[in-house]
Amino acid sequence: xxxxxxxxxxxxxxxxxxxxxxxFELQHRGKNVLLIDADAQGSLSDFLDxxxxxxxxxxxxxxxxxxxxxxxxxxxxxxxxxxxxxxIANFSVIECEQRLSFRNISTILLDALETLGNSxxxxxxxxxxxxxxxxxxxxxxxxxILIPVQTEQKAFMGLTIVQNEIYKANQRRRRFKPxxxxxxxxxxxxxxxxxxxxxxxxxxxxxxxxxxxxxxLPPVRDSIAVTEASNARKPLKLYKPGxxxxxxxxxxxxxxxxxxxxxxxxxxxxxxx
Length: 273
Ligand SMILES: Nc1ncnc2c1ncn2[C@@H]1O[C@H](COP(=O)(O)OP(=O)(O)OP(=O)(O)O)[C@@H](O)[C@H]1O
Ligand SMILES: [Mg+2]
What we know:
The chain is 42% helix and 14% strand. By secondary structure, it is of the alpha/beta class. The chain has a 7-stranded mixed β-sheet with strand order 3-4-2-5-1-6-7, sandwiched between helices. β3 (79-81) and β4 form a beta hairpin. α1 (15-28) crosses α12 (245-257) and α6 (133-141) crosses α8 (159-172). Magnesium ion is lined by residues 15-16, 39, 43, 126.
């Protein structure tokens, strides 16, 4: 079982669509996939047609995390969508986050996910655009982080905050887990015809190599079909199988499944700044 945080505190960089489509691609390859929606916006649950809004608290994944008291069993309410299993979020996650901060149990999500044993090959967590308690819990519980980022100035500048959050999470997990493996930076919504995108792709590559010391994964190209798939509440591969963005997602899935762990990126401890 591998838990992957799809994280960037910057908003609108493509975290949720990447989680949906990468999750679907992994299950298409025969993997057993759990997707966890960690965002009060509930976008992932909505993009998968799970109608998260108006659901009772008991059906919200983070509510079960809040109430989890080991050694009692962790029994989240989970839904099925497109061959995957999903932990739903909606705006009641805001209250869950306050309760989690109040409980002050720094590894509650990690403890909860450990009870799932090897029920899943991959757990992908769609992080919120924030650096608050739920995001930190995810970074503490995850084995690996994938960092989607747009090839534009604002998103590029925000990478130093991502680096700092990884550092903070590594401090918190020190007694429980090895440092977070940085699986890679993924340039998103990329249009190679735009000079500014090509420029920031190079800048991001340098930062990945020299700052985060992690691979730059293949860019996910810009296509209106991605947004249309969300509006249709389907994974892109089902909505538009011929869309070239599917090949980009396949390449990222390949980097996760076809990886020779011996030659995979080294686990690094990121230092501040
Ligand atoms: N490859 C792509 N091509 C075109 N548009 C895209 C692509 N990926 C994402 N988008 C669009 O960009 C917007 C933001 O995407 P998404 O919701 O996945 O980002 P996010 O990082 O999860 O946002 P938030 O920080 O609010 O959670 C959406 O309108 C989405 O349809
Ligand atoms: Mg999102």
